[in-house]
UniProtKB/TrEMBL annotation:
The keyword Ribonucleoprotein does not apply. Keywords: Membrane, Peroxisome, Peroxisome biogenesis, Transmembrane, Transmembrane helix. The chain crosses the membrane at residues 103-122. This is Peroxisomal biogenesis factor 11.
Length: 200
């Protein structure tokens, strides 16, 4: 949200002093996010290992899950090193290259998530076509598939929003700060809603 507001205020001609607090918030939240993610890369490495060992899973979904988790593992590992550099704890000569490779790994992780989600949606649609909705069991399964589809669509929207950031950083697309701010806000709200549902 701070990213979008600073962009909006800049476009509207607000003074630098008025925009400065939002720029500061953006930078501080970025650093705080990196701190909170320290060590989380191990969780993704473990998840990749579990997905690889799950032979009962659909092969396409399994390999997409492995690709997603390894992408996130690499991204968070490199982000941790970039944090050490930006915080002045340990300076790396190749910090810019690490940041670029972190963005690339993040992009690939999200891309695997989008491919996996799209494929899962296709499988859900195919399964629903074969249902006999006049039978009680069929109605129950239809409702289950509808909930599954809703969860998939929500995740796909979040992934599409998230991928705009590394895609822009890598030069694959050229979204401005306003679009990136709105995309980040949308993804964050989806994440908060998901967490809220789990605790409700």
């Amino acid at each position: 949200m701070a990213r979008f507001l600073s962009f909006y205020m800049l476009r509207k001609g607000y003074s630098a002093s008025s925009i400065a607090p939002f720029e500061a918030i953006k930078k501080q939240f970025s650093q705080a996010r990196k701190v909170m993610c320290l060590g989380k890369n191990i969780e993704h490495l473990k998840a990749a290992s579990l997905a690889m060992d799950n032979k009962s899973m659909d092969p396409v979904i399994r390999y997409c899950a492995v690709g997603r988790q390894l992408g996130y593992f690499t991204y968070l590992t490199l982000e941790s090193l970039c944090f050490l550099d930006s915080a002045g704890i340990y300076k790396f000569r190749s910090s810019k290259k690490m940041a670029s490779e972190a963005a690339r790994a993040w992009f690939l992780g999200i891309l695997f998530s989008i491919i996996g989600g799209t494929y899962t949606m296709y499988k859900v649609n195919e399964k629903e076509k074969r249902l006999t909705k006049t039978i009680a069991e069929g109605k129950v399964e239809s409702e289950t598939l509808a909930k599954e589809r809703q969860a998939i669509v929500t995740q796909l929207i979040s992934d599409v929003c998230d991928i705009t950031l590394p895609a822009t950083s890598l030069g694959y697309v050229n979204f401005d700060e306003g679009v990136l701010g709105l995309a980040g806000t949308t993804s964050s709200l989806i994440g908060l809603k998901t967490v809220w549902k789990k605790t409700a």
